[in-house]
Amino acid sequence: MKIKILGTGCAGCKALFATVQKAVSEMNIQAEIVKEEDLMKIMQYDVMSLPAIVVDEKVVAKGNLSLSEVESLLKKLQEEKR
């Protein structure tokens, strides 16, 4: 699983990156987590609000999420892959 956090480096973007890292660690998920701060690359995802979470090149969430929200999202995505 490849997870990208789209954001320009704002506090909310950094917080979401840390939250996703914690969720992946706590859930023992094999994932590559990347911060994408290049505005031109972010625009390719056609998102109008940041931060956003992209999993395997699909935008799955926008805005700041809590740890429990990220964990629920990741659990749902894992179930869909099965």
Category by helix and strand content = alpha+beta
Q: What would you give as the CATH superfamily?
A: Glutaredoxin
Q: Major sheet: order of its strands?
A: 2-1-3-4
Q: How many strands?
A: 4
The H/E string reads EHEHEEH
Radius of gyration: 12 Å
CATH-scheme architecture: 3-Layer(aba) Sandwich
Which CATH top level class fits? Answer: Alpha Beta
Q: Uncertain runs with pLDDT below 50, 5 residues or more? A: none
**Integer count of domains:** 1
- Tell me, rounded to a whole number, the average pLDDT: 95
Enumerate how many helices there are, as a single number.
3
General description of the model:
With 82 residues, the protein is α+β, with helices and mostly antiparallel strands. The protein has a single domain (2-81), classed as Glutaredoxin. 44% of the residues lie in helices and 23% in strands. It contains three helices and four strands; from the N terminus they run E-H-E-H-E-E-H. It has helices at residues 11-26, 39-43, 67-81, and strands spanning 2-6, 32-36, 52-55, 58-62. Strands 2-1-3-4 form a four-stranded mixed beta sheet. Helix 1 (11-26) packs across helix 3. The longest helix is centred in the first third of the chain and has 16 residues, at 11-26.
